[in-house]
Amino acid sequence: MGFFTLILLTSSCFLGKAAGKQQVQAEPSLVKAAVGDDVLLNCIFTVDEPTVDLSRLSILWFHRGRQLAEFDDVVTTSREGVSLSREELENGNASLLISRVGTGNSGNYGCYITYTPEVRIREVTLQVADPEEDLEDSFSSPCLSRSDILSKLGQIEEAVKQLEAKLQELVTSKSATRCSSEVASPSAPEPSR
Question: What ranges does the record list as Low complexity composition bias (predicted)?
Answer without folding.
Answer: 180-193
